[in-house]
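Lab notebook: predicted structure, single chain.

Context: the supervisor wants predicted structures on file for every construct in the current expression panel, including those that have not yet been purified. This is the next one on the list. No modifications to the sequence; it matches the entry in the shared construct table.
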Amino acid sequence: MKVEREETGNLSITHDGSVLSVISLAVFVIAAVWLGIEYVTNGSDSERFEGLIGVSLMFLLMGIVTWEKSSFNFDIGRKELKWKKGRYFRYRSGRLHFSDIEAIILGSPVGDDGVPSVRIELITKKETLPVTDSYKSYRENFAEDLTAELTKLVGLKVHATPEERATKLNELGKVFDAVKVLTKESGMTVTEAKRYLDK
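Prediction complete. Output recorded below exactly as produced.
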């Protein structure tokens, strides 16, 4: 993820996860050519031919699944976000006025007990718009600091304490993320966190 800050105060976030996709598709092409050569020389009855079909399909699928690009441009003067996301070779794009953004949060995948991985998500009145579809581990406090910066940039309140963040997440229907914030940052048990949020 690349973050660019302009002198005007505008901020751009771009993500290009297509490198692995391009490598996978290149391996697919090589395997497909090899598959064709194998078919011409030995026919379709060899074990190598069957293995090459499997390898070709695996790398084709991996190339499609790992392809992801996104750009989010925050325009301070217009108070507008212009975004574009590409996943599985399909693009979506749009514009949002800052007032349409209800919160900017760190989302985490269900069952993430190992290395913490997160993604920045914009919660709008209509949908949750992740900056990246994939979850990732970032250097220490990078994602947290960027989330706080974006929150200030669009004119929302930065929730400083874990309890404030968890309450806001719970209000937005992100109960799992709210419980995770309370258990990891406040030291509560899952039961205590649920009781806190049910108040």
